[in-house]
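Human: I would love a firmer grasp of how sequence relates to backbone shape in proteins. Take your time, and here it is.
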Amino acid sequence: MTLADLFKADNFYALSFDEARSELERCTYAYLGIFPLQKGERPQTDGKRIFLEARKSEFQDDKEQMHNNRNMSLYLSDLLHELLHIREGSFLVDARPYLETFQNRGLAHAVFNIVEDARIENNAQQYIKTEDTELLQRSNEYLARKRQFPEKTQDRFMEIYSSYMITKGKPSQFNSELQEVEQSALETRIEENGLNAQGINTVADLVREVVSISNGVYNSDVTASWEVVPKVYDMLTRAFPNIEQEFPDQNSPYAQVSSPQMQENGEKGKEKKGQKGKSKGNKAKSGSDVKEKGDSNSKDNGQSSDGQSTATQQMAYMGYRGDVHDFSAGTQKGNKLEAMVGDKKEKKNADKDGETNNGVYGVGPDRHGSGKPPQGLVQIVTYDDLKKAYIHLANLKLAKYDGNNPSFLRELDKYDGIRRRIVEHFEMLRPNELQRIQFTEDPDELNMEAVIEVLADPALRTKARAYDSHIINERDSLTSILLDISGSTSGTLESGKRVIDVEKLSAGLVYQSLREIGDEVDLYAFSTDNKTTNLYHLFGLENLGALEPEHANADGVAIRGVVAEMKGIDARDKTLLVISDGKPVATGYKGDPVIDTSMAFGEAEAQGIRTVYFNVDNAPSDYFDTLVRNTTYAQSLKDVEQLPEVVSDFVMENV
């Protein structure tokens, strides 16, 4: 090999995991905080750690300029995909027993992999950076150009189906050489009377129907992906009679592979106490525990090709990106898919019961809020400022707000500079991930000050706490944003914008910013009509963008409803942000609505929920001080451009 050949060789341009680690850790920290990254055979996560390949060598790019290095981009796209699996809860349940109920577990798993990969990347668009969304999209298109088009029609269907879900296009859009064989596959007739009766006569019709069913998982949790699996599986087995016996073949990207098994904590090893920043390795499950059962297509016998035990390996399936979908973390938590689906059914039944039974909840001497209100009409206890007592009942209805406005996302993009400034301020709320606790008995690190004291006075030796220990602080925060959409929000501000438009933009920017630093955020809106306050639980930014002015506003009633919702969610830190245009007014609102709203804020604070109030108006009203006297922070907004300054002020007061 000549010197010139050496400089062109893959091993010269290859980017190793260790070389990329600093950039990878920076990306991980932005979305997960401190999280273990390890080298592996392929991308994989079990929810406890992320594996990435030992090196990337697909491009011959200069390693001195990482921001232009395409191997680095591939590393980052793999990492983003894996951390989205963690954030979206893909593997928090052990679905393997459920998969065994299918005659061909590999086919069922392949459907799940396709749908789940599409779900997590779609949901992530609401909270990851725009450039990261684009990176995932571009890397998916790059992978699509590299994929081989299979021979069998049923395998070609799976390739076209996965391409539509992941890249939002056909394989031929990324590889023009596939146009002829792809078109031939799509025109293949399907001979099944039931499907034909539904208008599914060709593979193209089947692709269209299956993609339509699968698109229902967007903006939902992992349960939605599993609910799609039996529907798609049934259609595939009817369309392709031999697919259960033949899928996948050895060369299929959906074939089984061997992957690291998650190691159990506490089995044949020692557990670290508390939330220590480091842990000791523990022995893994035996090969018999790891072995997947019941798959007629599996050729694995619990041993490697050389006859050695595969005690630390498991048989798993790959997703579109070649990453392993690993459910072993679900086993550690004792989670099963059946239990999760059961919980969901119980929740639905409880909600259904709530529609026919009125409830009374609120805060006062004898009535304490407990949990979320049931679906349907409930009653809220409100405060009478003259009688100094909680004696009035007001109606509240928890509902969904119909409508979506996709153009609202483009409107938000115009304020991306403001969003970035808000994120910088909110980042200050994140705790130090690794915290040092001084003078402890846990020997993570010697405390030299304590050591010197012991050396100076040996009598202290038996009582000395000569160590520092480390604990991991993780931000665990929930924020609920509540918007007033009363009729008065149709008014115009000095800036020329409608009040409701400034409210929506402010809520959207705060929502995006908090989601970017990893917080859980819920969106609500309310208006009051005919003595009933409608509390709308919004689902995403497009739903938020559709809001329009409605009726009156009983703020105190709506605040208590959201507080009841928040109490049903586990989070260490909770904040309620109310965005309104002014004085609470509603028909039948007994007592002073300003005082009642102030009391509602105080009730939330007493239950450990920080309250923040943004008054969207040209100037604060004379009742403003009374309204917000029980809040943690309150400010008047004239326009959305004030948000970074207001958020900075709030953060500085609360850091």
Residues 262-311, 329-374 have pLDDT under 50 and may be disordered.
